[in-house]
Amino acid sequence: MNPRLNERTAAAIGACLVLLHAGAVLFSLQSPAQLPLIHQLAGLAASLLSTAGTVMAARAFSPGDYLRRVWTMFAVSAVLLFVASSLRVGWMLAVPEVPFELSALAPVRTLAVVVVNILNPSALVLLALTYRRSGLQPPRSWKTNGLWALCAVVALAIVLPHLSHNVKLLMDGGASVAQTLASVVSALGDIVTILLVAPILRVAYMMRGGKLAWAWWAMAASGAMWIVYDAQQWDRIQGPLALLAVARTAAISLKGLAGVLQRVVLEPEPAKPETAASLRAA
């Protein structure tokens, strides 16, 4: 395999994006007005890596394959996330004095985000069911049940306060029905994403030692980063805690890395060159 984007390159790019994001946040702590643009630019760059990695994974499978459908859904969600970030970044650069929420592009971005929050969790569900389709049925244990319970508690603790706040805004007239609907879809997507950290970690642990396990570890790490990011709207916070917004950049980048790792597993091993001794023997 001699791709332009391999697993080491993807990992290096993702790490650089996270470090650059963190450095830009630290540099801008004295001018917090720049933080929203920094967060959006980091997400935009990470979406490019995510798109490249998931497209590579999808193209590695034949048409009609179960996992081609899964990775295609991931790829479409990555493209839509890139579009949503592009719309916001473009507006913030072109018309910085007008909030993006008041622009004509805001409903388009909201629709893109809603579709992302439907596609990505759906793809995660299909991915988590892959081990059952392959005939693997790991035994349930108290550790597994405990992990499921922990993920469920974390999901509800993170999502329910945000959801109730947005519903209250709707009741008080502070949010539109469309905004509240988008919030509900996003909340449900977050719950699914957090819950599926448990089975994805379980499969990664089962396959430990193999190449494919790294793709599952990367996807599980992506889910863990979303948990950190969803715990609070760090991109709307000023001060040192704004650094935690880099969790979003890490989550998006890790999904791209997972796609690259999936593609690497499916590449055929390069043929070993015949040695001089074997040629003489022939």
TrEMBL record:
<feature type="transmembrane region" description="Helical">
    <location>
        <begin position="144"/>
        <end position="164"/>
    </location>
</feature>
<keyword id="KW-0812">Transmembrane</keyword>
<feature type="transmembrane region" description="Helical">
    <location>
        <begin position="111"/>
        <end position="132"/>
    </location>
</feature>
<feature type="transmembrane region" description="Helical">
    <location>
        <begin position="184"/>
        <end position="205"/>
    </location>
</feature>
<feature type="transmembrane region" description="Helical">
    <location>
        <begin position="212"/>
        <end position="229"/>
    </location>
</feature>
<keyword id="KW-0472">Membrane</keyword>
<keyword id="KW-1133">Transmembrane helix</keyword>
<feature type="transmembrane region" description="Helical">
    <location>
        <begin position="38"/>
        <end position="58"/>
    </location>
</feature>
<feature type="transmembrane region" description="Helical">
    <location>
        <begin position="70"/>
        <end position="91"/>
    </location>
</feature>
<protein>
    <submittedName>
        <fullName>Uncharacterized protein</fullName>
    </submittedName>
</protein>
